[in-house]
Specification:
Distance between the termini: 12 Å
Strand order of the largest sheet: 1-2
Order of helices and strands: EHHHHE
Helix content: 40-55%
Largest sheet: 2 strands, antiparallel
Radius of gyration: 12 Å
Length: 68
């Protein structure tokens, strides 16, 4: 599964709130909700977050192997 837990830490480190993502950068609240739930989002969304936060993909998401 893909986890976006690193995203929230990176946002805190960079001083970017969810409110700023929506109001200043035009990110859809639905995309934020999907990421909170660790649901799938497009690579375009990942790219937008990387640009906003000036970070690498690994700073916002990681793969976690599920038990078989």
């Amino acid at each position: 599964m893909i986890s976006y837990e690193k995203l929230w830490a990176t946002m805190k480190e960079k001083g970017v709130s969810q409110y700023a993502l929506i109001k200043k950068y035009g990110v859809s609240p639905g995309q934020i909700t999907r990421m909170k739930r660790n649901e799938s989002v497009s690579t375009h969304t990942i790219e937008v977050f990387c640009k906003i936060l000036d970070c690498d993909v690994g700073d916002i998401m990681e793969y976690i192997a599920e038990d078989k």
